[in-house]
Structure formats: structure tokens, C-alpha cells
UniProtKB/TrEMBL annotation:
Example of a GO cellular component annotation carried by this entry: cytosol
Role description: Catalyzes the complicated ring closure reaction between the two acyclic compounds 1-deoxy-D-xylulose-5-phosphate (DXP) and 3-amino-2-oxopropyl phosphate (1-amino-acetone-3-phosphate or AAP) to form pyridoxine 5'-phosphate (PNP) and inorganic phosphate.
Lineage: Bacteria, Pseudomonadati, Pseudomonadota, Gammaproteobacteria, Pseudomonadales
Annotated pathway: Cofactor biosynthesis; pyridoxine 5'-phosphate biosynthesis; pyridoxine 5'-phosphate from D-erythrose 4-phosphate: step 5/5
Residues the record marks as active site: 51 (proton acceptor), 78 (proton acceptor), 199 (proton donor)
Protein's name in the database: Pyridoxine 5'-phosphate synthase
Chemical reaction(s) catalysed: 3-amino-2-oxopropyl phosphate + 1-deoxy-D-xylulose 5-phosphate = pyridoxine 5'-phosphate + phosphate + 2 H2O + H(+)
MF-aspect GO terms: pyridoxine 5'-phosphate synthase activity
EC number, as in UniProt: 2.6.99.2
Family note: Belongs to the PNP synthase family.
Binding-site positions, 3-amino-2-oxopropyl phosphate: 15, 26, 200, 221-222
Gene name, Swiss-Prot/TrEMBL: pdxJ
Enzyme class name: transferase
Organism: Marinobacter orientalis
Amino acid sequence: MNPSLTNPRVLLGVNIDHVATLRQARGTRYPDPVQAAILAEEAGADGITIHPREDRRHIQDRDVLLLKEILTTKMNLEMAVTDAMLAFAEQVRPECVCLVPEKREELTTEGGLDVDGQEARVARACERLTRIGAEVSLFIDPDIAQIDAAVRCGAPVVELHTGEYAEADTPQAEDAAFATLVTAVEHARKRGLIVNAGHGLHYHNTERVAAIGGINELNIGHAIIARAVFSGLKEAVRDMKAILAGARG
Ligand SMILES: CC(=O)[C@@H](O)[C@H](O)COP(=O)(O)O
Ligand SMILES: NCC(=O)COP(=O)(O)O
């Protein structure tokens, strides 16, 4: 059995895209996401998540290749389901790949990948990535039909999109989105999947999600990098780790 299925603590994947966003905003050589990854790992990150977008608006190929050389935890490469990105993953050979939907004009990822609606294409991508030894994850909405489609595609992992929960604008809407998330985690676990989650999680809404039994890993980026502006990255990572550690008693 994969050890992550029995892990009593929730793992933290730190998404460092936003460090690259700041660098690209001015076309400078700093801040360097590679340096961010080193600090995040030193502060206890269990993995580093990056999403080289097709338009390369933040993470660059150079970042991915250097990170592959220096990471001591694992690389979680988020990417669109395209031939070009699959070929890039085959070149990089990351430990984990998370397939995500991508729209050129979006500010950040909107909604989960429609696995149910393009099963053959996603299944082929899963097969290609599994062949290079990557653990494949599908970034999907907390939806039963999408979870079942992920199982049919042969992905061992799903990452449930927490955006609806994180962006809820009333306590009632937040509770409803949370209940949907819990149902989805339970269903995915029953179907034998490793369950990760992420998107929009921050220092005030993460504990509740981390407390859901069956969640293996949370991927968090924007909130950690934003806090790092004031506290430094190591402290920001440690603060989030403390929330995860406290969530399950
Ligand atoms: C999949 C997800 O929710 C985020 O990791 C997102 O893909 C990050 O990408 P951006 O940094 O471009 O928003
Ligand atoms: N997969 C979700 C992720 O990596 C982090 O997203 P966010 O915390 O930057 O919204």
C-alpha cells in the first residue's frame, strides 16, 4: 500500500508560481523560484508544486529543469493536457504530475479538469505519464462523476479543487461547499484513490480542510507567498505546517 494512504499527518506541497510571477512582472532575474523552493524545503515543505503554463507567464522551462536537479523532496508538475506539455514532462520526468485545465485568459485555474467529458484523452495522458514513472493526479471538482471518471482513467491520485469552499462569501455557502468536499473525499477514498486538495486555501480556512480524514496532501501557494512578503518564506511555510499539524490533534 502507498504509505501516503496511511499517513496520519497532512502533507504540504508549496506552490511557488507566485515567486515567478513577481520576477516576470519586471523581467528581472529575481526573485528566483529555485531559491524559494530551497527555503520552502528547509522549512518543512513536503513537496514543491509548479505550474508551467503553456504561455510561460510565470514558471519558465529553466526553473523546471533546475528544480528537477536540486529538489530534495518531490516535484509536483501541474500542466495542461496537451501534446507539448506531455512531451515536456517526458523530458523532465517529475515525481508527480497533476493534470489541470488551462485557459489563456484566466487569472488562475478556474474549476477542475473535465475528466468525464474527455475520458479517452485523459486516459491516454495518464498512460504516457505513468510510463515515465510519474504519479499522476487529476485536478478535479469535488464531484462524484469526475471522481469515477478519474478511476476509469487509471489515475492513482485526485486533487480536489477547493475554490468553491475558499471563495464562498457566506458561512452557509462555505458550510455547503465543505460538506460537498467531505462527501467527495469519502467517495474517492472508497474508490481507492489518494486524495489531495488545494486552491485558494489560506491561514484561516485550511485547518478545517486539513482535519478531513483521508486527505493526504494540500497544495498551497498564493497565501504562503503573500505572507512571505512580510514574514519571510521560511516562517510562512512553518506557520502553514503548524496549522496542518494541529488539524488532526
Ligand atoms: C491547479 C491550481 O489550482 C493552481 O496550482 C494553479 O494552477 C496555479 O496556477 P497559477 O499560478 O497560474 O494560478
Ligand atoms: N493546486 C493548487 C495549488 O497548487 C495552490 O493554489 P493556490 O494556493 O495558489 O490557490
